[in-house]
Design goal:
Helices cover 42% and strands 14% of the residues. By secondary structure, it is an alpha/beta fold. Strands 1-2-3-4-5-6-7-8 form an 8-stranded parallel barrel, surrounded by 7 helices.
Amino acid sequence: MSRFRYCLNASTIRTTPVLRQIEVTRQAGYEAIELWHDHIDEHLRSGGTLTEIRKALDDNGVVAPTTIYLAGWFQPAGEEHVKALDEIRRRLEQSAAVGATFAIAGPPPGKADRALGASHYAELLELGKSFGVKPAFEYLGFVDDINTIDDAIEIIQRSGHPDATVVVDPFHCWRGGGPVSSLSKLKSSQIAISHFNDSPAEPAASLQEDSDRVMPGDGVVDLTFYCDQLASTGYNGYLSLELFREDLWAKDALEVAKLGIEKMRPFVE
């Protein structure tokens, strides 16, 4: 019996057009795909429509639980914040059009003003209500400040918003150095989605970037412990395979997606 559900993050087959990404998702056996706004925009620039993307999802029996990503909202305040929200509204409209429940919102790259960011996250969640989409907060292991589960928990708690959720990821735990056991501090309702991947022994964790991620089971992260901690919260949603590897982008997308689901299977079943 599966304790999680299979999802493919479109980053894993990034060079594949979005409609084909959706077909590959179904053909490889995943239930869901996380769509990137950059890929959606490429489709629109080539003359495609959001309606076509939604139809492709429906025709293939695939859902898009999230879209990625919302940036620039955390800080600063003032005119830059207002400008960032204009782009975020555009992206939330796309999220709603493809039926996404969540839109992933990232932290700033440098030192974070946590009080301001938490306030802005509450504002972002209220904005999301008008589109029927919930912005989900993601910690990133390679940023200077908000790079652990505990950091993300602080932001959602300080926001005081009942819809606040986090995105969790074993790579970002490895890279940021925060304890995986902090997953147990979350309720299942506070987890929007779990990305899934592994990390190699080299380079050192503190030097790793997105492109260093490897298939589940091909690295040194204790993914069994990660999944056990995740399941202990009551979470039984999606594990989403998220890789950023040029060697995989150069291969057939369906071949990569099928390999990914086989690599995930020992941790899901």
